[in-house]
Design brief:
350 residues, mainly alpha, two-stranded antiparallel ribbon, cell wall biogenesis/degradation, cell inner membrane, cell membrane, transmembrane helix, lyase
Length: 350
């Protein structure tokens, strides 16, 4: 009986090994994109190339020389039609990558930066955007907004497409048109926004999902710390509910467009532009950057917090306050910390 049991287990393991590693799939030939930090496990488990996560872990550890959780080499790989898991692993292990265009769009950058990145990417066929040029002003970007909107059938809001494209790292085949790339980025952002909007917290002070996108762009520019996004969101949501002005510096910067020289002056704060939330009520007319999925989620799921103010702490984070008095004290601490740092730097240079 014991022998029969052992033989049965061995047969079962053999079947698992074969079906997990060698069995063909019904997948067509396709491009598999490996991003920084991706592992065999993370990329292939829950994918059509395997049937069981447990079986994959067990068998792949025997088959692969490297651990299944070892990061893969970033790039784009061509997977043949009806490839088995073994064939997929072989392609990834051998590192035979397809020559592709890499388009890296960083969250928090503007649509102007996006257009410039796409136009300058080697291998992109420029059909919609204006040709490359040494200088590229905001006026040029606005003209490109009109061309892109017409090509993709997008409705321009105040002459701008800011925030409408998803920041991420993308790979495209050489010879891909700028129109196809922009369509992909636009569709990705709309999908993210639509899904987040459906699951939003109730009673938010937004008229529609476009206003949520505007808020997400402000959150994106205010903090790069993931744990702070929802708290920053709650501050702005609380201020909107109380009809308080948002008073956020990134909106000043965006409203200056090409006039911004790296500093915000008192005259900039006092200048009434369409975007300066020190001077206008409510949200600016368009997003001010390309927001990430995390910032969109934060805009639609603010923290349950009654803070109305925040200020930088000098170490990358922010101090949140409920009252103006608390906020003023936090500002004073921040200024003292900055003055101390300047003194230390000054002493170290002598």
């Amino acid at each position: 009986m014991v022998l029969l049991f052992i033989m049965g287990v061995m047969v079962l393991l053999g079947v698992i090994f074969y079906t997990t590693i060698f069995a063909k799939t019904d997948q067509d030939a396709q491009i598999l994109t490996v991003k920084k930090g991706d592992t065999y496990h993370g990329l292939l488990v829950n994918n059509a190339w395997q049937r069981s996560a447990f079986a994959f872990d067990a068998v792949a550890k025997l088959y692969l020389k490297a651990c299944v959780h070892t990061p893969l080499q970033e790039g784009v790989y061509q997977i043949p039609k009806h490839a088995s898991l073994k064939q997929v692993i072989d392609v990834l292990t051998q590192g035979v990558k397809v020559q592709m265009i890499k388009v890296q769009i960083i969250e928090g950058k503007t649509v102007k930066d996006l257009y410039r990145t796409i136009k300058n990417a080697e291998g992109v066929v420029v059909e919609v955007l204006t040709p490359r040029a040494d200088g590229y002003s905001w006026a040029d970007a606005m003209r490109d907004n009109e061309r892109v909107a017409a090509a993709l059938g997008i409705t321009l809001v105040n002459g701008n497409l800011e925030g409408q494209f998803a920041p991420d790292t993308y790979f495209f085949e050489h010879g891909t048109s700028d129109k196809k790339i922009l369509q992909k980025l636009y569709d990705s952002q709309q999908k993210i926004l639509n899904e987040a909007w459906k699951k939003r917290t109730e009673n938010l002070p937004y008229q529609d999902k476009y206003e949520a996108l505007i808020m997400a762009s402000i959150i994106e520019k205010e903090t790069g710390i993931s744990d702070e996004r929802r708290r920053v969101s709650s501050v702005f949501v609380n201020r909107l509910r109380k009809n308080m002005r948002l008073q956020t510096d990134p909106t000043i910067i965006y409203g200056l467009f090409d006039r911004y020289d790296g500093k915000i002056y008192r005259s900039n704060i006092n200048e009434k532009t369409d975007y300066n939330t020190y001077q206008i009520n409510g949200l600016p007319p368009t997003p001010i950057a390309l927001p990430s999925k995390a910032s969109i989620e934060a805009a639609l799921h603010p923290a349950d917090d009654d803070a109305l103010y925040f200020v930088a702490t000098g170490d990358g984070g922010h101090q949140f306050s409920r009252t103006l008095d608390e906020h003023n004290q936090a500002v004073a601490r921040y200024r003292a910390a900055m003055a101390s740092k300047k003194t230390s730097v000054s002493k170290s240079t002598h």
